[in-house]
Specification:
Layout lengths: L14 E7 L5 H12 L4 E3 L8 E8 L6 H5 L3 E9 L1 E3 L8 E4 L6 H10 L2 E5 L8 E2 L2 E2 H6 L9 E14 L2 E8 L5 H11 L4 E11 L2 E2 L4 E2 H6 L2 H7 L12 E4 L1 H8 L4 E2 H4 L8 E7 L5 E7 L4 E7 L8
Parallel strand pairs: 1-14, 3-12, 15-17
Antiparallel strand pairs: 1-3, 2-3, 4-11, 4-12, 5-6, 7-10, 8-9, 10-11, 12-13, 16-19, 17-18, 18-19
Length: about 325
């Protein structure tokens, strides 16, 4: 008689895993696989990578999912290969070839064109994207042969560095604001050079202050022991390292966790000089309590709170 399959009970896991995503793996597949390996109750990612792209994919578990939005808003760095002279339906290797052209550009011309894409620029989101129109992602329309009008939007290219040019391929490093499509950037560079282009490689190397050097591959994580997997997780506050810290004594920490605003100056608590987002800790054990907005006159307004039983740092 066949024995019934007994499902493992999910357990609370809190922390951040920096995954080096492999090519041809969807971000959601990677998240589900890692969640299963950790047997975690709750998980989420901080923005997807296209299947053909590789590199840094921060995955959040438990209380860390409350702060995933902060990485969605963060600047990101990529290294990419732009193949000049060939355009595709998707702007990368996953699409069908649309047009081929001769490539006869000089390094001087390339540098002049790259200069035009540094700073604040306008981008039209691609049809092959997850942006939704009337409840459906744009890529569903594209697969049905439908092209919809899309409004351009402002993004910022903080850094655009030419790493190598061996015709017909440009290798670039790009640091950009949220919402930037590197596929569109590659296509637009190709248009500006009057030869067209598409991406043949894309690797994300940094999200906010998190870097690829800290990341682990799926194979390495799967081969690790359960104890080592847990040790690989970064603490919840790894997502918040760019925010100043505020330390609260026990009585204030308790009031903060109840959602009360605190007058830090009146309470004699040292706080950052500037207003804005802060991360808040219990002074006694350095436990992360959550995030808050530091308002004028040293008023601390709770924002997202960490469950009292969670070790945040």
């Amino acid at each position: 008689m066949t024995q019934p399959v007994v499902k493992r009970k999910r357990v609370p896991v809190h922390g951040v895993l920096l995954l080096d995503k492999a090519v041809d793996v969807t971000s959601n597949h990677a998240l589900v696989a890692i969640k299963r390996l950790l047997n975690a109750e709750k998980a989420g990612h901080t923005g997807t990578l296209d299947p053909f792209a590789t590199g840094l994919l921060p995955l959040c578990f438990g209380e860390a999912t409350k702060f995933a939005q902060d990485l969605l808003e963060a600047d990101k760095t990529y290294e990419t290969t732009v193949h000049l002279g060939v355009t595709t339906t998707t702007g990368d290797t996953e699409g069908e070839t649309l047009e081929t052209s001769m490539v006869a550009v000089t390094l001087k011309q390339i540098e002049q064109v790259l200069q035009c894409f540094r700073g604040s620029i306008e981008q039209v989101p691609p049809m092959y994207s997850a942006l939704k129109r009337e409840g459906k992602p744009l890529y569903e329309y594209a697969r049905a042969g439908i092209t919809l009008e899309r409004e351009s939007r402002a993004v910022t290219i903080h850094q655009l560095e030419l790493l190598d040019y061996t015709a017909p391929e440009l290798k670039l490093r790009v640091t950009c604001s949220k919402g930037t499509y590197i596929r569109v950037l590659g296509e637009d560079i190709g248009k500006a050079l009057d030869c067209g282009a598409h991406l043949t490689a894309l690797r994300r190397t940094q999200v906010g202050r998190l870097t690829l050097e800290q990341a682990v591959t799926m194979d390495a994580f799967a081969a690790a022991t359960e104890a080592l997997r847990m040790q690989t997780l970064l603490p919840v506050d790894a997502l918040l390292s760019s925010f100043p810290a505020v330390l609260l004594r026990a009585d204030l920490a308790q009031r903060f966790l109840h959602g009360q605003r605190l007058a830090l100056e009146k309470e004699g608590v040292t706080h950052p000089a500037n207003t804005g987002r802060v991360r808040v800790y219990a002074l006694a054990d350095q436990r992360l309590l959550g995030t808050a907005q530091l308002l004028e006159f040293g008023v601390l307004a709770p924002e997202r709170l960490v469950h009292a039983s969670t070790t945040g740092s």
